[in-house]
Prior knowledge:
Number of helices of chain B: 17
Radius of gyration of chain B: 21 Å
Helix content of chain A: over 70%
Radius of gyration of chain A: 20 Å
Oligomer: heterodimer
Helix content of chain B: over 70%
Amino acid sequence: xxxxxxxxxxxxxxxxxxxxxxxxxxxxxxxxxxxxxxxxxxxxxxxxxxxxxxxxxxxxxxxxxxxxxxxxxxxxxxxxxxxxxxxxxxxxxxxxxxxxxxxxxxxxxxxxxxxxxxxxxxxxxxxxxxxxxxxxxxxxxxxxxxxxxxxxxxxxxxxxxxxxxxxxxxxxxxxxxxxxxxxxxxxxxxxxxxxxxxxxxxxxxxxxxxxxxxxxxxxxxxxxxxxxxxxxxxxxxxxxxxxxxxxxxxxxxxxxxxxxxxxxxxxxxxxxxxxxxxxxxxxxxxxxxxxxxxxxxxxxxxxxxxxxxxxxxxxxxxxxxxxxxxxxx
Amino acid sequence: xxxxxxxxxxxxxxxxxxxxxxxxxxxxxxxxxxxxxxxxxxxxxxxxxxxxxxxxxxxxxxxxxxxxxxxxxxxxxxxxxxxxxxxxxxxxxxxxxxxxxxxxxxxxxxxxxxxxxxxxxxxxxxxxxxxxxxxxxxxxxxxxxxxxxxxxxxxxxxxxxxxxxxxxxxxxxxxxxxxxxxxxxxxxxxxxxxxxxxxxxxxxxxxxxxxxxxxxxxxxxxxxxxxxxxxxxxxxxxxxxxxxxxxxxxxxxxxxxxxxxxxxxxxxxxxxxxxxxxxxxxxxxxxxxxxxxxxxxxxxxxxxxxxxxxxxxxxxxxxxxxxxxxxxxxxxxxxxxxxxxxx
Lengths: 329, 343
């Protein structure tokens, strides 16, 4: 039994160990790397990606995919910048953004489930739609100079002298904790795993497959919109070409964190560490100083490769054990 | 009538014709073809020239998708092959400097290598196709930057520039040379698919993977070949794109072209879950996507709106191809509800 728990969480453990290894390696190699602030900056710089990755994890566990998230982030930034410039109430704007994200997710989920359109294509349409809508608002970038936004953006929660986190980090951590609890302990979360594992048996078990599949996209849309709001705190502007390819970063984070794209396997905490690992690679490359930023991509890709092969070996092993047990009985 | 509408190529072709008819009424001079500098000139010719890279990619993508896979790395392979070809033409690589033939051969080899890598991961290591190709998609642009040392390579003053430029932007018998490349590649692939044992196996694999494996078809080997073809197509597309702009831009060459290629395949009515496939339908799909882009330019709509139009087109076309949608809209709700409950 003990062994079962270990092997079930094996890829999550590997992810965390790898993160610690990278952090140790960076600390040994570079002066000033080993500090609480460098660690916390990983969260500050990647808060939006963590939030998006949580939503993405649910979609991937359910066996779907959502490639619209990057455009949602861009659209949220663009529309909120536009509305704020026209004097809207900032809290109303945030609420509206979350509503738009969720509604978009609902529509995509609806046509995916009821009209049997492949998730990739339906969310691709969503991606184009949001991206195009950005440019209808404006083709250039819009600054956000709303006092509420800039206060939130610049507010530092002091944890110790010279160490702080931003409000975005708090939001991201709340999302991660809520997501992890939902996935592991709630009825909905368990049902998502069941649908991802085998949709047909989930249906036969009497689970409301339609509602679950649609909810997953609503959740992802909501997280993407929240990530977009956090991202507009981070940049204090909206621009239509923002965050191109972000959806692949979110998917890569989930995969590094142990999520299988075939569905049924994955964890929210793992995805967060997936984001942090990408962040730490970036930090190391900045500390190294003489490497170009595209080395980040090559390093992340090599890691992806490593993790995927590792997962493949694990699941092949498990399959072999299961088959042996079947033969024995 | 039913037989016609159920034919796979009907919907993409109908959409293409609707678009052309629309252009005939609303876009000025869309069908006008004049002769300029000894070759044909006009919007339609432009479409033929610019749809070449997408058409090549959609050929490769159709085969990959038929095996139940997907190749999202093609955009990065486009960047790699363009980077290699332009670096050689410009004489930056240190080997085979300024050699036209070496540039082509090495660029094509790079595509084959990328395809083999993808195929190896999918067929031998048995990684899910999307994840397997995600690796090269992420790394590919970095690799291209390594080749060009992080710079945009322009070949304006290179000795073999004219020959290279001819490939993507030149004219032969009054028509774009790139179009002839598409025709040649299409013919070869169609012969491969329709007239050889490989094609027979591929079709069988697409229709029923399990029974194909049980009847002794080497599924792994076919997948390996299919991904290699996709890589090769991407490298040819990379050559065409880099030749057309006389340079290699690692960040922007072929950006999002994988989405357009998948879109072309989907518009062509091929199921993205694999199964039976039709290459000509995908090519009509690519033609449609390119025609849409050209239409937007011709109408003077801001180019940024293209993505909005594409979104609408995807939704409309996919909904019309979806059986459950058609049943709901055209045949009342009764039967559809029963079907949805059972699923």
